[in-house]
Design a protein that fits this description.
11 helices, Peroxisomal Thiolase, Chain A, domain 1, five-stranded mixed sheet, binds acetyl coenzyme *A, 335 residues, alpha+beta, 2 domains
Amino acid sequence: MSEQAIVTGRPVSISGTGSYLPEKVLTNHDLEKLVETSDDWITTRTGIKERRIAAEGECTSDMATKAALRALEQAGIEGADLNLIIVATITPDTLTPATACYVQRKLGAMKAVAFDVSAACSGFLYAMEIAHSCIATGAFDNALIIGAEKLSAFINWQDRNTCVLFGDGSGAAVMRASPNGHRRVLASHLGTDGEQTELLNIPGGGAACPITLDNVERRLATLAMQGREVFKHAVTAMRQAAELAIAKAGLTIADINLVIPHQANLRIIQAISERLGVTEDQVFVNLHRYGNTSAAAVAIALDEANRSGAIKENDRVLLIAFGAGLTWASAVIEW
Ligand code: ACO
């Protein structure tokens, strides 16, 4: 297990956010027709009511680009002026090249260095940490970070343990060197536990288990999860990550105005809120509308909180994520 965080060098701000959700809505009642489940079970166990599904032919880079354009517009910067593009995803358009390369082309961001980060649901905060470090050290002046997922393409739609949980979507943020600006990243924390890779994975389709007819028939290229175990790890790791980032920022939980947690399960969010000692109205939740969109979840929630006015100027916002790997991450931003 390894844990790291770097927040040194020149200040870095979030100068714009954006998100995109595909139009097609898949409700719990729709899922009742696909697998043996019920709206009541899904709502009680997860809090999810519906999720979005990408259109036929709509891929991860398309959704990523749409969220990116909104973030760029808010930041007042053109794609052509970007230095760095990082796409966090576990559902890339292709195994290679990186989805970020397709996004670079779609944005006309031909001066930007572009690559992907694979850290599952923690991916957006991993991307934020990398971009932050690159800008803080002076290697780059700006970065576009995106969490984008087309999980519907990697779900076994006959497995009720997983198919009710996930959805498609994307969220993005523009980060910039900003000596005096608002929306500064104060502190962050990342962690990984590679001892737990089997708890949550897509076992097939990579070099360890290449695509064969047999593997496809056995649904090995779809997401598999030991939900109960993941749940326990999620609560412990997210709580610790939150406390470490808050401490590194020189703050206490009483200084945090809004918590934006990974949107996997309302019960996980409630357990963490209770342990951290924050009230329900201090926690941003949108998972009832979108389900778990993995790397996109915190990014979408950040954009919705930003645009809806849920985050006020000078607020301290705590972002927390957890996902396959296992991975976890947190960041404190002063808005
Ligand atoms: N409908 C009806 N019954 C179901 C369904 C369903 N969709 N899914 C499972 N069940 C059944 C199970 O078969 C089991 O039945 P059994 O007792 O007869 O065996 C029963 O419901 C209870 O199953 P549990 O797995 O114990 O249910 P639990 O309360 O743990 O909820 C859940 C399952 C929602 C998956 C939960 O464990 C969870 O949210 N885990 C964490 C997920 C997470 O945080 N993922 C984050 C990262 S995702 C990423 O990185 C891509």
